[in-house]
Amino acid sequence: MTKILILLAISIFLAFISWNWRNGLKTEMLVPNNDLSFDAEKPLDKYTYEKLKQARFAPSDITIGKTVKEPVDFKSLMFYFNVDGKRVSGLINVPEKPGNYPIIVLFRGYVDREIYQTGIGTAHMGEFLAKNGFITLAPDFLGYGESDNPSSDPIEERFQTYTTSLTLLASLVNLNKALASSDSIVSASASKVGIWGHSNGGQIALSVLEISGATYPTVLWAPVSKPFPYSILYYTDDFDDHGKMLRRVVADFEKDYDSEKYSLTNFLDLINAPIQLHQGEQDEAVPFRWSENLADSLNKIDKKIEYFKYLGEDHNFSEGNWPLAASRSSEFYRSNFAE
């Protein structure tokens, strides 16, 4: 009886195939799909370093707004540009004397959104450089200052700092138009562009160098330079919930994405820019060993790096070495732009 049932089932199956064939119907549904290579693109795939390297960052118009500060030798003003249809605000410092000046783009470290004001984290250095013959621009980033809101995904918001920075750098070709529209008596040398980054701004700066492959002379003050996501999980104790929400967000991200593709430490070989690194030995926010490891890693792959260590100095160089670090930074830019 069992054999009869099996033969009957086979007969019905073969008859079904024969009927489909005679009626010109497709039978692919009967054949298993063995192509497992297809991997649907996920929303954050576009932020891998490799994908960002392939992306084109279209220049935005730059507009200059109200004056924030106007001492004797420079002027601080608001400026604005667009990234993916969103407005980003920032602070521009312009020397008072007529001339054509190099440009330094400054990236700040982490600041709580509730206390943030345009210029926090970069204003001091921006003013110093403006007094010494540079135009400086420091973006607020999405969600800060007068900028539009970022992505609701906190991981994507982090990656948007890269696209914001790369768009601003691409937009510097339009800076002279903006300066002329604001009746400025100075102009910018778009062929002489440098980067300054402090703390998490140093992480952004390194990422920009890797993604762009550009040769912007870059100064890093106590940069966050560890692998992602350790680079943010390290700071979980600083949050009111001791990082519980952040750990959940990271865990959810790593379910769907390979974090190695988003980690700057895997792409140091892509850097082509000269770097000057400053690190305080008593820094409690960015451990001294992080910059030691970064300098060693860059030296091992023959990257151009100058490294200064400051005995007894803290994260913000407030123990007496700020003027020295600032003057070394200014001279670094000047010497590289003279080459």
The CATH topology: Rossmann fold
The tally of structural domains comes to: 1
List the helices and strands in order: HHEEEEHEHHEHEHHEHEH
Mean pLDDT: 90
Detail the poorly predicted runs. 1-38
Q: What is the CATH architecture descriptor? A: 3-Layer(aba) Sandwich
Helicity range: 25-40%
Helix count? Answer: 10
In words, what does this structure look like?
- There is one protein chain.
- By secondary structure, the chain is an alpha/beta fold.
- It has a single domain, classed as 3-Layer(aba) Sandwich (Rossmann fold), CATH 3.40.50.1820.
- The chain has helices spanning 2-22, 49-54, 123-131, 154-171, 175-181, 200-212, 230-233, 244-256, 288-300, 322-338, and strands at residues 63-69, 74-83, 86-95, 99-107, 135-139, 186-198, 218-221, 275-280, 305-310.
- A nine-stranded mixed sheet has the order 1-2-3-5-4-6-7-8-9, sandwiched between helices.
- α4 (154-171) packs across α6.
- The longest helix has 21 residues, at 2-22.
